[in-house]
Design brief:
single chain, alpha+beta, Pdz3 Domain, four-stranded antiparallel β-sheet, 9 helices, elongated
Length: 345
């Protein structure tokens, strides 16, 4: 539980803080007045003022926020330095900067991993690298680090050989797996189950990994390439959700926190990879043209640029309310799904 909480705080805090820093730094660079930049939410623990901006540390370490003067045109105390008084292009830059930082962060994280640890590659040895919770292998008591020796009495020498033999088995028909752990051998009965998504039988284990060192140029190139590939995959997945919303599996804050805790159990590097994936997800979702998200705000600025004047305060108010209602409904649905998974597993 403690590890899950710490992992969730780290991931949520890093992602939101980086996002808000994007808004903060571009607001400063475009001459807007930023009244406060805060790390965390809730009551202040510490604050100091440097120039015109107050920098504060708050009690709830889940991200942060920055208070840019003039975000509400009816309450602009900064005059020409208020957000609402700046050119449309400057406001667009500030609005898009948050998601832009969420796309930059994974490149930095991947580069750091590849340059220091190396690039993870599946190991050829039949050694278990991870065990998925509540899957057949987990129920049978297999652990990370177990070396698989035989499957139904047939010798296994490589991971690929194990996978090939397993795929030839039938769902709901037990198989015998012999393994070595701490120089001791044992045999367990595991009942594979059919996975609809992958259309094959699974027991819920993955291979161990080895890391190949990279020079700085290769590490950066791979980081950019990996980030691009993940974005393309996520966009395809998002399109699939819109095409078949009834089949979508959504995770809310509780589900993400659980996943963060499970990933953290396997090490800090996997947690950084997880944070990179969530950062890209946050960047993409936040750019959707939904009122109350940065994407919706950007659309309103495009409309202002085309019309030559901003949308009326009444129109903005109604669109914001619709956007907030949609986000609250989606969050409630995802959180309900999380709670159902927690209490019915």
């Amino acid at each position: 539980m403690i590890l899950t909480i710490l992992a969730a705080v780290f991931v949520f805090g890093l992602l939101v803080l980086v996002h808000e820093f994007g808004h903060f730094i571009t607001a400063k660079l475009t001459g807007m007045r930023v009244d406060e930049f805060a790390i965390g939410f809730g009551p202040k623990i510490f604050s100091t003022k440097y120039g015109e901006t107050k920098y504060s540390l708050r009690a709830i370490p889940l991200g942060g926020f920055n208070d840019i003067a003039g975000m509400d045109p009816s309450d602009n105390s900064a005059g020409e330095r208020g957000f609402c008084e700046k050119p449309v292009l400057s406001r667009m830059i500030v609005i898009l900067a948050g998601s832009t930082m969420n796309f930059i962060l994974p490149v930095i994280l991947f580069f750091g991993i590849y340059a220091t640890v190396g690039v993870a590659k599946p190991a050829t040895d039949p050694v278990i690298g991870s065990v998925i919770q509540d899957m057949p292998a987990d129920d049978a008591g297999l652990h990370v680090g177990d070396r698989i020796l035989t499957l139904n009495g047939e010798t296994v020498t490589t991971w690929d050989e194990f996978v090939t033999k397993l795929r030839a088995s039938e769902a709901d028909v037990p198989v015998e797996i012999s393994y070595e752990r701490d120089s001791q051998t044992a045999t367990v009965s595991v009942t594979p189950k059919f996975d609809e998504k992958s259309q094959r039988v699974l027991v819920g284990i993955q291979s161990s990994t080895v890391y190949e060192s990279q020079d700085l140029i290769s590490a950066f190139s791979l980081a950019v390439e990996n980030t691009k590939n993940i974005v393309v995959y996520m966009l395809d997945a998002l399109a699939g959700i819109f095409m078949a919303p009834s089949k979508a599996e959504l995770a809310g804050p509780i589900g993400i926190a659980q996943m963060a805790g499970q990933v953290a159990e396997t090490g800090f590097v996997p947690l950084l990879n997880f944070a990179a994936l969530l950062s890209l997800n946050l960047g993409i979702i936040n750019l959707l043209p939904v009122p109350a998200l940065d994407g919706g705000h950007f659309v309103s600025l495009v409309i202002e640029a085309v019309r030559g004047k901003p949308m009326s305060a009444k129109a903005l108010m109604y669109t914001q309310r619709v956007g907030i209602a949609l986000l609250l409904a989606l969050t409630l649905y995802a959180t309900t799904s999380d709670l159902i998974r927690v209490f019915t597993k």
